[in-house]
Specification:
This protein is α/β, with parallel strands linked by helices. The protein contains 6 helices and 7 strands; from the N terminus they run H-H-E-H-E-H-E-E-H-E-H-E-E. Bound molecules: S-adenosylmethionine.
């Protein structure tokens, strides 16, 4: 390694198999409700919306995707839980609200426009990816428009062992390093807006 080369991130997520997410969807488990305060935070810190492209990574049964659509975005929800996607589609879909089966670990989903996404949302998803930092780098380098933004919700774990899906404050700082960050912590959740740092 060159002396000035950044060290590779050691932050590891803890994936869960799609069958487990199917079971959660079957039981109607939606881990974190969407509050009006959350929506105000998102709207306040993001620019545009009407007609812009949003992708919800790990959309589950599509509750947040539908909220994004109501804000005016053209939305694609992505998940690899087949049952979650069925339940999401049962609530309605169309040209401006579509759902896509894809594993986020498999690179850029083929239907996404490269450098064409204005907002990528990942609510309580990133801790379940094997390499969360690298996934965010891919989003920055290949998914986002030059002015694009990312909205993350990350459950904060304060005690070891961490529960599945949690990250420590230090993990979250590692995750966000190299980005411009707006963050608000509420009820054990870190809500984070990321913008690529300008060089
Ligand atoms: C905790 S749920 C959150 C669902 C939704 N974002 C919400 O806020 O209610 C995590 C979701 O991420 C999906 N997920 C996890 N890992 C994934 C992966 N590698 N590819 C696609 N979806 C994934 C799961 O299937 C599940 O629906």
């Amino acid at each position: 390694m060159q002396r000035d080369e950044a060290p590779a991130s050691t932050l590891q997520g803890r994936p869960i198999k799609p069958a487990v997410w199917d079971a959660w969807a079957r039981e109607g488990r939606t881990p974190y409700d969407i509050s009006e305060e959350e929506m105000r935070f998102l709207v306040h810190h993001t620019s545009g919306r009407y007609g812009q492209v949003a992708v919800e990574a790990g959309c589950g049964i599509g509750k947040f995707s539908r909220r994004l659509r109501r804000l005016g975005y053209h939305v694609t929800g992505i998940d690899y839980s087949v049952l979650s996607l069925q339940l999401a589609r049962a609530e309605g879909y169309g040209p401006q609200l579509t759902y896509l089966y894809a594993d986020l670990e498999d690179g850029v989903p083929s239907d996404l426009p490269l450098h064409g996404v204005d907002l990528v949302v990942a609510r309580t998803v990133v801790p379940f990816l094997t390499k969360p930092v690298e996934w965010l780098q891919q989003v920055r380098d290949l998914w986002l428009t030059p002015d694009g933004q990312v909205y993350l919700v990350v459950p904060i774990g304060r005690e070891k062992p961490l529960q599945p899906g949690q990250m420590t404050q230090t993990d979250i700082e590692v995750l966000c390093s190299g980005w411009q960050v707006e963050r608000r912590d509420t009820g054990g959740l870190a809500r984070i807006i990321l913008r690529p740092s300008t060089p």
